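Incident review: delayed structure delivery

Summary: a single-chain prediction request sat in the queue longer than the usual turnaround. Root cause was a stuck worker, restarted by the on-call engineer. No data loss occurred. The affected request and its eventual output are reproduced below so the record is complete for anyone auditing the incident later.

Affected input:
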Amino acid sequence: SAQNLPPLPDLPSSAMAAPKRRLGEEFDVIIGAGNSTKWRLGAFTFREHNGLRIAAVHDHGALAEWNKAHPERQVKNGDLLLEVDGDLRADVDGTRGHGKVIYEELLKAPRPCKLVIGAGQLHTM
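Output delivered after worker restart:
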C-alpha cells in the first residue's frame, strides 16, 4: 500500500530544470511579493517597439530574487518584458506597448506586480 512507501527525498532547487519554452512563449512573473525588500528590477534593459528587452539580469534585484525562488520560471537574458500589471486581478489587463510605456509603468506600478515575459532564445536551448 502507499502508506508503506518511503518518503521522497527533498530535491535541491537546482534539480528542477527550467522547461524549454518556444521563442516568444509568454509566462508570468510576480515581483515585490512577500518579504522582498528589493524594488529595483535588477536588469539592464533597452526599449523596443513591442516591449522592454531584458539584455542582462543582474545578481541583485527583483528578477534575481524571482529566479532564485522559481527556477522553473526564470527570467533570462534576451527575454522581452511585454506587460506590467499592478492590479493582479484576473479580469483587469495590464499595460502593454512600446518599451518606453512599459518602463514608465514599471516605475509607478505598486508592489507586488505581475510581469508578462516573452521567452527569448535562451529558453529554447
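Verification: The chain is about 15% helix and 25% strand.
Action items: add queue-age alerting; document worker restart procedure.
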